[in-house]
Amino acid sequence: MKMILLSILAVILVVGVISSFVLTRDGSLKTPVGTGTVTIDASTFEAFPLPDYAAAFVDDNYKSYFIEVAPGIKMHILEVGTGQPVYMQHGVPTSGFLNRKVADALPRDQFRVIMPTLVGLGFSSKVPASQITLENQIAWTNTALTKLALKDVIFVGQDWGGPIGMGALARSPEMASGAVILNTVLDAPKVDREIALPLKIVNTPIVGELFLEGVVSIFNQLAGLQKDPASMPADVIALYAKPVQDSGNAKGPLALTRMAVTGPDHPNAHHFVTIEAYLADWNHPTEIVWGLADPILGKRLSDMTPLFPNAEVTKLDQGHFLQEEAPKDVAAAIQRVADQL
Questions:
Q1: Residue 89 and residue 55: Cα distance in Å, rounded?
Q2: CB under 8 Å to 207, separation ≥6 — which residues?
Q3: Cα(24)–Cα(215) distance, rounded to whole angstroms?
């Protein structure tokens, strides 16, 4: 009997070691391939015909293409409309599709809405988890914006899209002319920060992998971040989840989430210092639209307002993904910023 128990324990131990190895693997580069080309302002990019399940969420006026931001690494871009460029950057674990409702609420003859997807998510390249760093995301995004040769941009950033997008613009400060800031973090930490319980869980080795890649899916938690869970129905969740889960490298959401800065000594803290320095000279029209019911960032509005002391603030009883829950409010803020330019 004792030998049987020891054998069972040995099997459990071996299975645990193997499972831990599989879960904590770095992942490999997965480079998407498009078909044909798209020409934008005399520049040619690789076209990407959307699969049917994604194409159902946009109309035929949307352009879908890749920009190579490093060898073998491509960012997927959605855009629609002409006129004032609006650069909208999503966060984790969504994609450029998160901004489609906002784009559809804006006049297409007045605004050119550009919606990139962060590397590691959506239809963009999937890379090893060790390459998903804040430095790389900012650099890749800046390369994409530079290749698009954008000028007089209204920036809209939410979640990790805030510091990644603003960090990219800080490297090309001549691009931006205004901003709409949604639930995000842009301020440099002065003291150690208490992070939300979900972030604590995902930052714990192995436990995080089990939470986001094993027993529980990060995508299945999205509805719980909303004031109205129905704003994240199953087909929308699949829109964000399927490209990642089908890619053969689903490490992106966890790696991006683990970039969270916990204090001034965190390796990523210096990027926020740079962003604050950039914003110290910011004199562009800006609005803040904030979801107070966001369980992760809802209480962080007081950290944002000092960075934009002249910004109009719209407080909403909504959740984390305002683009899904309150797209008309976001679009109205973009229109007001444009009207000031």
A1: 20
A2: 201
A3: 14
End-to-end CA distance of the chain: 80
pLDDT tens, position by position, for the chain (341 residues)?
555 544 444 333 433 333 444 455 799 999 999 999 999 988 999 999 999 999 999 999 999 999 999 999 999 999 999 999 999 999 999 999 999 999 999 999 999 999 999 999 999 999 999 999 999 999 999 999 999 999 999 999 999 999 999 999 999 999 999 999 999 999 999 988 776 666 666 667 766 676 666 567 889 889 999 999 999 999 999 999 999 999 999 999 989 988 988 889 999 999 999 999 999 999 999 999 999 999 999 999 999 999 999 999 999 999 999 999 999 999 999 999 999 99
CA separation for the pair 48, 33 (Å, rounded): 7
Contacts of 79 (CB under 8 A, 6+ apart): 40, 62, 63, 112, 113, 114, 115
Tell which residue, 182, 187, 184, 185, has the closest CA to residue 289: 182
Give the chain's radius of gyration (CA, Å). 20
Distance CA 234, CA 217 (A): 13
Distance of CA 319 to the CA centre of its chain: 16
C-beta of residue 286 within 8 angstroms of C-beta of residue 308? yes
CA distance 205 to 21: 11
Q: Say if residues 296 and 198 touch (Cβ distance below 8 Å).
A: yes
**How far apart are alpha carbons 302 and 211 in whole angstroms?**
30
What one-letter code names the amino acid at 324? E
